Amino acid sequence: MSTTPQRQIGIVLFDDVEELDAIGPWEVLSYWTHEYPDDGFAVFTLSPAGGLVQCIKGLRVLADYSFADAPAVEVLLHPGGRGTRPLLRDAAHLEWVRRQRATVPLLTSVCTGALVYAAAGLLAGRPATTHWSDLGELAELDPTIQLRPDDRFVDDGDVITAAGVSAGIDMALHLVARLAGVERARQVRRGIQYDPQPPV
After folding, report:
1. What pTM was computed for the model?
2. How many C-beta atoms surround the C-beta of residue 153 within 10 A?
């Protein structure tokens, strides 16, 4: 068992979150942290109130923490889904996101999680992406964002945005490469047998 102090990665959950936006990165990151504990990272989930979260397609997930009692994180991942739409008008949620920007070294998003970051003012003047069908809305939220419609993910240093749904898996593997090296990311990719060759 590792005695290395663990650095935390938090995955945000909320009602009507898109399942794979959160669970895809969770699979990558939890495989990594369980199989290679000496790398010194751990991953958990958090939601506004903690407890049970209903995802958009019916999966129910139990968040590990509420926003109020979650440990400090080094990386925060905000997924997307239809549930982001109310969050764009949720002053308390947007303020919470801004507070994370002040203390969390690396913010990441999947799909329309980028819309939440944009609504909170965190993507001004930065390159970013989201699901292909939501790029127009991202531009409307903040016309200064430099859209990257052809990128699976965009790494802008302390903010990483990923395109839609399955692109979160690519982004999570990129995170492993950033935090623990390319070879480790390749080991994780092989471990979860992620080698996309779409059948159709």
Report:
1. 0.96
2. 23
